[in-house]
Amino acid sequence: MNWEIVIGLEVHVQLKTQSKAFCGCKTTYGSPPNSQTCPVCLGYPGALPVLNREVVNSAIKAGLATHSKIRYRSGFARKNYFYPDLPKGYQISQYTDPICYDGYIQIPTEEGKKKIGLIRIHMEEDAGKSMHTENGTLIDLNRCGIPLLEIVSCPDIRSPQEAYTYLTTLKQIIRYTGISDCNMEEGSLRCDANLSVRPMGEKTLGTRTELKNMNSFHGVEKALAYEANRQITCLEAGEPIEQQTLLWNEQTQRAEPMRSKEESHDYRYFPEPDLVDVQLTDAWIQDIKAVMPELPEERLSRFIKHYGLSEEDSLVLTAEHEIADYFEAAVQGFQDISLMNHWIRGEILRILKEKQISIDQCPISPKALRDLLTYLLNKKITPQTAKTVLDNMVKTGESADKIIEKKGLLSITSSEELDALIRNIVEKHPEEVKKYRQGKTQLLGFFMGQVMKATKGRADQKITRHILQRYLDATEE
Q1: Core-most of 186, 345, 393, 445, by most CB within 10 Å?
Q2: Which of 356, 387, 407 is the last residue of a domain?
Q3: Average pLDDT by consecutive 10-residue portion of the chain (477 residues)?
Q4: How many domains is the chain partitioned into structurally?
Q5: For residue 254, how many C-alpha atoms fall within 13 Å in the half-sphere facing its CB?
Q6: Does 477 map to a domain?
Q7: 72 and 153 share a domain?
Q8: Taking the CA atoms of the chain, what radius of gyration do you get in angstroms?
């Protein structure tokens, strides 16, 4: 039997606000445990929450970026459950009337663009963090009350690979809006997945399971592939699927049962009595629209049209808005866009990978790269020399001007100087000259290498090639 996989994803995005959702506590990552707490986020009796306006602004931005409808009036609810890292015994969330709903994002597939629907985007607060040790469980409540957006997809995803693409696309969109850094290592983007399978052509959804504890997009992909295979194996053996929550074990590469899966009634939602409803206005939404940044698809299209770049190049440059910003700053006033693209995609991304840093931490500023490539564009240095200078810039922090002047790296373009040097090299290699003249013309590369070695890569290649061919093609006397 052919089976169809049905996947829906619930993504929690931690917002990049200066203070928490309902109090003034800071949200600085990595602070000492329990150092960023107050009576509100600790759930002390009599402490009242006050909504952070920036959380609402961020939710509107997320809605606009995902083609969602914005609800003008939305309220909060208490989601009741008991866990050591939830001091109030409930989480402030949204239930019946989320601020954003009925949206979608488009993902690339082999068949073209595919639309993945979004059921809702709602605001809520985070819980604390439990740290399990050999001696017991420790609780850090710094994270308690940090603002989140929960983005819930429709069950439109049909494979683990599509789920991976959906997550990378959603992350790119959210990062472009600036509302979150979406750093999974720091917990600012977390994903739960619901999966079921059904016979191909069947319309009724199968019994679903929920997967948690996945700490990377590839981890999500592997966990979904494992669970899909497990469910299909069970169904083909005539065994029913139990609705439950599973934890993904990265070490064993297996999904392990955690508990029976909860439904909304298990949380006993009821309206949050300490918060008034959020009432949006046209003016408020228009103010957010006015400051919305250019989104990935728009920027990709502009890079192709405005800069004349290929789609492949543009996809790399716009994958992260910081890299796109770097490119646009570097190319400003520079005449050869193709050369700049080549160096950023090649050398700059190589540096970032080797040092395991982001473009914001790159030791080469856009202006510094532009200054270096101006020497190359004007043929004052060779490509080989330019790479040497770039590596020196990374190590020393010095400018291209200073390194080139100090090390005497300007290209040798004097025909007279190169003529004497090349004649000497040709005279030292009579056997290679003889073979070249007998038809082994690939030996031209050998002679080019000898010249570059002698000049430490500073010889102008065009002039060098012309002089070499003149000597090598000369008739023997």
Answers
A1: 393
A2: 407
A3: 94 97 96 96 95 98 98 96 91 96 96 96 96 90 97 98 97 97 90 96 94 91 96 95 93 86 77 97 97 96 97 96 97 96 97 95 97 93 91 96 89 78 89 88 90 81 86 70
A4: 3
A5: 4
A6: no
A7: yes
A8: 30
